[in-house]
Amino acid sequence: MKTPVIYWKLFVLLVSLGKVYSQTTNNFPLVNVNDSSAGIDVGTQKTYTTRVRLIATTPSSTFVPSVFQNDAVNFYQQTLGGSYAAVTGVVGTSGTSSTGQLIVDVVYNVLYSFTAMQNVGITDNQVTTEIGTYQAVIDGINDFGTTLKNFYVFETDSSVFVFSGSSICSAPGTNCTANTVCNETLSGVTVMCISACKKGYCQNNGTCEQASSATGPTCTCLSTADVWFLGTTCQTRVELWMVIVAAVLGFLLILAAIILACCCYVTKRRKKEKESGLYLTSEKTTTYTNKGYLDTEHGQITKVDAVPR
Ligand SMILES: *[C@@H]1O[C@H](CO)[C@@H](O)[C@H](O)[C@H]1NC(C)=O
Ligand SMILES: *[C@@H]1O[C@H](CO)[C@@H](O)[C@H](O)[C@H]1NC(C)=O
Ligand SMILES: *[C@@H]1O[C@H](CO)[C@@H](O)[C@H](O)[C@H]1NC(C)=O
Ligand SMILES: *[C@@H]1O[C@H](CO)[C@@H](O)[C@H](O)[C@H]1NC(C)=O
Questions:
Q1: For the whole model, what pTM was predicted?
Q2: What positions does the domain EGF-like occupy (predicted)?
Q3: What are phi and psi of 172, to 5 degrees?
Q4: H-helix or E-strand containing 89?
Q5: Closest ligand 1 atom, CA of 34?
Q6: Positions in the chain whose pLDDT score sits under 50
């Protein structure tokens, strides 16, 4: 029982010797495609959706979206190098805190011209520090706003804060060169065309290779003594027991097919034998009948009912 296992392991080792190179996370020794900038249409907009929470300071306060919008506009106009476009879609959802105060969750969009941001040279880090953290937004709206602070304060627990950018990669005017894929930092501004290898093209720890941007990526799949990965992106897991079950089933299927073929052959042969027997019989009958006919001509009728069967 032990010997076949050793032979098997030796076989797997020999097979794996063909691919001694390795690929660890974020290291792609077999990828020779440099990251490049994506082509982005002028007019493409980037939207940052933000959520903050306000707590009313006077009992009679009601939330007025336009008041919030005006104060927020003042802030966003002063940030990110003046590449600002608009604050839109201000929606406030009111509730009551445990101490009976009015609280309002405000969700709104800040729209920027993406090409304007690129021209000004905005970085991911700038986006994060200027508009992408709760403290920056609280300070900004309080500092640049005029009206809101008379009625509301911001909730200080930053877990209420949401900040997410729209996808430029999926915008209609954004293109990557052949054999590269678009990759972006959603809450920043970076949009690059990179090898699909760097975006998890090969699954299950397969090694990804892309010799140049003239060809697509290819995967060398992982295999161990009892597990293999198959498919273009190593997506299919095959285990030793599956192979054994498949082999046994295949063998049984072939056996069944052989038995069936034999049965068919025997049946056919028997039928044929039977058929040729009948043919002979009818020939003999004709002979006898003819004889009878001939004999009738000579005035002698031969008994024809003694036909051999
Ligand atoms: C990638 O960039 C490096 C450094 O700029 C350059 O030497 C190399 O030729 C480039 N490779 C390709 C395939 O363009
Ligand atoms: C991207 O491709 C579309 C469709 O082919 C084209 O209309 C658009 O001008 C391209 N954009 C850039 C920036 O190359
Ligand atoms: C792709 O984008 C993500 C952010 O969405 C970033 O963490 C990652 O480093 C990028 N990959 C490359 C290869 O630039
Ligand atoms: C892939 O590698 C990671 C890290 O080494 C490991 O945790 C994981 O189990 C591996 N997956 C497979 C399918 O081998």
A1: 0.74
A2: 194-235
A3: -60, -30
A4: strand 84-96
A5: 1
A6: 1, 17-20, 282-296, 302
236-280 pLDDT, tens per residue?
A: 999 999 989 999 999 999 999 999 999 999 999 999 888 886 555
Cβ of residue 210 lying under 6 Å from some atom of ligand 3: no
For residue 215, the CA-to-ligand 3 centroid distance in Å is 22
Q: b/e map of 230-247 (b: 16 or more CB within 10 Å)? A: eeebbeeebeeeeeeeee
The residue whose CB lies within 8 Å of the most ligand 3 atoms, and thus the one to mutate among 34, 123, 183, is: 183
pLDDT in the model for residue 4 = 63
Residue pair 302/294 in contact by the 8 Å Cβ criterion: no
Pairing of strands 174-175, 162-165: unpaired
User: Which ligand sits closest to the CA of 33?
Assistant: 1
Domain 45-165 sits in CATH 3.10.450? no
232 lines ligand 3 (CB under 6 A): no
